[in-house]
Specification:
Blueprint (H helix, E strand, L loop, with lengths): L1 H23 L5 E4 L1 H7 L11 E5 L5 H10 L3 E2 L8 H4 L4 E2 L5 E5 L13 H7 L1 E2 L6 E3 L2 H15 L7 H10 L6 H10 L3 H15 L2
Parallel strand pairs: 1-7, 2-5
Antiparallel strand pairs: 1-2, 3-4, 6-7
Helix pairs in contact: 6-7, 6-8, 6-9, 7-9
Protein backbone atom coordinates (compact mmCIF):
# COMPACT_ATOMS: atom_id res chain seq x y z
CA UNK A 1 0.00 0.00 0.00
CA UNK A 2 2.82 2.43 0.87
CA UNK A 3 4.56 1.66 -2.43
CA UNK A 4 1.41 2.44 -4.40
CA UNK A 5 0.90 5.66 -2.45
CA UNK A 6 4.50 6.75 -3.10
CA UNK A 7 4.21 5.95 -6.80
CA UNK A 8 0.97 7.93 -7.11
CA UNK A 9 2.40 10.91 -5.20
CA UNK A 10 5.55 10.95 -7.31
CA UNK A 11 3.56 10.73 -10.54
CA UNK A 12 1.53 13.73 -9.38
CA UNK A 13 4.81 15.52 -8.68
CA UNK A 14 6.08 14.80 -12.18
CA UNK A 15 2.82 16.14 -13.60
CA UNK A 16 3.25 19.30 -11.53
CA UNK A 17 6.74 19.81 -12.96
CA UNK A 18 5.37 19.28 -16.48
CA UNK A 19 2.67 21.89 -15.81
CA UNK A 20 5.09 24.41 -14.35
CA UNK A 21 7.60 24.14 -17.18
CA UNK A 22 4.82 24.32 -19.77
CA UNK A 23 3.55 27.46 -18.07
CA UNK A 24 7.04 28.99 -18.18
CA UNK A 25 7.26 27.98 -21.87
CA UNK A 26 11.03 28.08 -22.15
CA UNK A 27 11.43 31.53 -20.59
CA UNK A 28 13.08 30.28 -17.41
CA UNK A 29 15.15 27.15 -16.69
CA UNK A 30 14.72 25.36 -13.37
CA UNK A 31 16.75 22.65 -11.65
CA UNK A 32 14.84 19.91 -9.82
CA UNK A 33 16.55 19.15 -6.51
CA UNK A 34 16.65 16.22 -4.08
CA UNK A 35 13.67 13.85 -4.38
CA UNK A 36 12.25 15.57 -7.46
CA UNK A 37 15.41 14.45 -9.25
CA UNK A 38 16.63 11.42 -7.30
CA UNK A 39 13.40 9.42 -7.57
CA UNK A 40 14.08 9.14 -11.31
CA UNK A 41 17.88 9.25 -11.56
CA UNK A 42 19.12 7.18 -8.61
CA UNK A 43 16.34 4.69 -7.85
CA UNK A 44 15.23 1.91 -10.18
CA UNK A 45 11.56 2.73 -9.53
CA UNK A 46 9.87 6.00 -8.56
CA UNK A 47 7.80 4.15 -5.96
CA UNK A 48 10.94 3.60 -3.87
CA UNK A 49 11.72 7.22 -3.00
CA UNK A 50 9.01 9.13 -1.08
CA UNK A 51 8.66 12.89 -1.60
CA UNK A 52 7.04 15.38 0.75
CA UNK A 53 7.46 18.38 -1.55
CA UNK A 54 9.05 19.53 -4.80
CA UNK A 55 12.30 21.49 -4.51
CA UNK A 56 13.31 23.55 -7.54
CA UNK A 57 16.21 25.94 -7.99
CA UNK A 58 15.88 29.14 -10.03
CA UNK A 59 18.40 31.80 -10.89
CA UNK A 60 18.00 34.90 -8.73
CA UNK A 61 16.86 37.02 -11.68
CA UNK A 62 14.14 34.47 -12.52
CA UNK A 63 12.59 34.11 -9.06
CA UNK A 64 9.91 36.75 -9.66
CA UNK A 65 8.84 35.16 -12.96
CA UNK A 66 8.41 31.72 -11.42
CA UNK A 67 6.69 33.17 -8.35
CA UNK A 68 4.22 35.00 -10.60
CA UNK A 69 3.26 31.80 -12.43
CA UNK A 70 2.66 29.65 -9.36
CA UNK A 71 -0.73 31.26 -8.48
CA UNK A 72 -1.77 30.76 -12.11
CA UNK A 73 -1.37 27.02 -11.44
CA UNK A 74 -3.53 27.23 -8.32
CA UNK A 75 -0.78 27.45 -5.72
CA UNK A 76 -0.96 29.82 -2.77
CA UNK A 77 2.02 30.98 -0.74
CA UNK A 78 1.91 30.28 2.97
CA UNK A 79 4.08 30.64 6.02
CA UNK A 80 6.45 33.35 7.10
CA UNK A 81 10.13 33.02 7.85
CA UNK A 82 11.33 33.87 11.33
CA UNK A 83 15.00 33.50 10.37
CA UNK A 84 16.30 36.51 8.40
CA UNK A 85 18.64 34.35 6.32
CA UNK A 86 15.78 32.18 5.03
CA UNK A 87 14.57 34.91 2.66
CA UNK A 88 17.97 34.79 0.98
CA UNK A 89 17.59 31.08 0.39
CA UNK A 90 14.03 30.50 -0.86
CA UNK A 91 10.52 31.88 -1.22
CA UNK A 92 7.79 30.93 1.27
CA UNK A 93 6.38 27.55 0.28
CA UNK A 94 3.69 27.29 -2.40
CA UNK A 95 0.71 25.09 -1.45
CA UNK A 96 -2.14 23.53 -3.42
CA UNK A 97 -4.73 21.01 -2.21
CA UNK A 98 -4.02 17.33 -3.00
CA UNK A 99 -0.63 17.91 -4.64
CA UNK A 100 2.91 18.35 -3.41
CA UNK A 101 4.00 21.68 -1.97
CA UNK A 102 6.61 23.51 -4.04
CA UNK A 103 9.72 25.10 -2.54
CA UNK A 104 11.35 27.64 -4.83
CA UNK A 105 15.04 28.05 -4.03
CA UNK A 106 17.52 30.70 -5.13
CA UNK A 107 20.45 28.87 -3.50
CA UNK A 108 21.23 25.30 -2.50
CA UNK A 109 21.61 25.83 1.23
CA UNK A 110 19.80 27.81 3.87
CA UNK A 111 22.99 28.95 5.59
CA UNK A 112 25.17 29.25 2.52
CA UNK A 113 27.97 31.38 3.99
CA UNK A 114 30.86 29.03 4.74
CA UNK A 115 30.90 27.15 1.42
CA UNK A 116 32.15 28.57 -1.86
CA UNK A 117 29.59 27.02 -4.22
CA UNK A 118 30.25 27.73 -7.88
CA UNK A 119 26.73 28.50 -9.11
CA UNK A 120 27.83 29.41 -12.64
CA UNK A 121 29.52 26.04 -12.95
CA UNK A 122 26.58 24.28 -11.37
CA UNK A 123 24.15 25.73 -13.92
CA UNK A 124 26.51 25.10 -16.85
CA UNK A 125 26.86 21.42 -15.90
CA UNK A 126 23.15 20.80 -15.28
CA UNK A 127 21.61 18.12 -17.48
CA UNK A 128 18.35 18.64 -19.46
CA UNK A 129 15.42 16.39 -18.54
CA UNK A 130 14.42 14.79 -21.81
CA UNK A 131 10.68 14.55 -21.21
CA UNK A 132 10.20 17.90 -19.40
CA UNK A 133 11.53 20.75 -21.61
CA UNK A 134 13.25 23.52 -19.66
CA UNK A 135 13.78 21.39 -16.54
CA UNK A 136 17.29 20.38 -15.53
CA UNK A 137 18.93 17.96 -13.12
CA UNK A 138 22.19 18.67 -11.35
CA UNK A 139 25.23 16.85 -12.69
CA UNK A 140 25.68 13.59 -10.72
CA UNK A 141 28.67 14.92 -8.78
CA UNK A 142 26.83 18.11 -7.85
CA UNK A 143 23.79 16.07 -6.80
CA UNK A 144 25.87 13.99 -4.41
CA UNK A 145 27.64 16.97 -2.87
CA UNK A 146 24.38 18.87 -2.46
CA UNK A 147 22.66 15.99 -0.66
CA UNK A 148 25.70 15.59 1.61
CA UNK A 149 25.66 19.30 2.48
CA UNK A 150 21.89 19.35 2.93
CA UNK A 151 22.04 16.43 5.38
CA UNK A 152 25.30 17.27 7.10
CA UNK A 153 25.17 21.06 7.26
CA UNK A 154 21.58 22.26 6.89
CA UNK A 155 20.17 19.46 9.07
CA UNK A 156 23.32 18.75 11.11
CA UNK A 157 22.81 15.01 10.34
CA UNK A 158 19.44 15.03 12.14
CA UNK A 159 17.47 14.10 9.03
CA UNK A 160 16.49 10.43 9.34
CA UNK A 161 17.73 7.63 7.11
CA UNK A 162 16.27 8.69 3.78
CA UNK A 163 19.06 11.15 2.96
CA UNK A 164 21.69 8.52 3.70
CA UNK A 165 19.80 6.04 1.52
CA UNK A 166 19.86 8.68 -1.25
CA UNK A 167 23.64 8.90 -0.89
CA UNK A 168 23.97 5.13 -1.03
CA UNK A 169 21.92 5.00 -4.23
CA UNK A 170 23.87 7.85 -5.83
CA UNK A 171 27.18 6.22 -4.92
CA UNK A 172 26.20 3.24 -7.08
CA UNK A 173 25.51 5.28 -10.22
CA UNK A 174 27.80 4.26 -13.08
CA UNK A 175 28.06 7.84 -14.39
CA UNK A 176 29.39 9.25 -11.09
CA UNK A 177 32.99 10.49 -11.35
CA UNK A 178 34.55 10.30 -7.88
CA UNK A 179 37.59 12.32 -8.92
CA UNK A 180 35.26 15.18 -9.82
CA UNK A 181 33.39 14.77 -6.53
CA UNK A 182 36.65 15.23 -4.64
CA UNK A 183 37.82 18.11 -6.84
CA UNK A 184 34.53 19.96 -6.60
CA UNK A 185 34.16 19.35 -2.86
CA UNK A 186 37.59 20.84 -2.25
CA UNK A 187 36.88 23.84 -4.47
CA UNK A 188 33.62 24.48 -2.56
CA UNK A 189 35.56 24.22 0.75
CA UNK A 190 33.14 21.52 1.86
CA UNK A 191 35.45 18.57 2.45
CA UNK A 192 34.81 18.13 6.19
CA UNK A 193 31.03 18.09 5.88
CA UNK A 194 30.99 15.86 2.79
CA UNK A 195 33.43 13.37 4.32
CA UNK A 196 31.45 13.12 7.55
CA UNK A 197 28.14 12.63 5.73
CA UNK A 198 29.60 9.98 3.40
CA UNK A 199 31.10 8.18 6.39
CA UNK A 200 27.76 8.26 8.23
CA UNK A 201 26.09 6.85 5.10
CA UNK A 202 28.59 4.01 5.06
CA UNK A 203 27.95 3.21 8.72
CA UNK A 204 24.16 3.57 8.70
CA UNK A 205 23.13 2.09 5.34
CA UNK A 206 26.23 0.47 3.90
CA UNK A 207 26.94 3.11 1.27
Amino acid sequence: EQTRYTALTNLKGLHQLHELMARLDGRVPLIALKGACLARTSYRDISLRPMRDLDVLAKTQDMATVGHEMPQLGHEQGGLFTEPWAHLHQEPTFFKTDVLAVELHRSLLDKNTIFDIDYDGLWSRAVPVKDIPGLLYLAPEDQLIHVCLHAGYSHELDIGLYAFADIAMMARMSNLNWSLVVERTLSWKAERCVFLTLKMSEILVGA
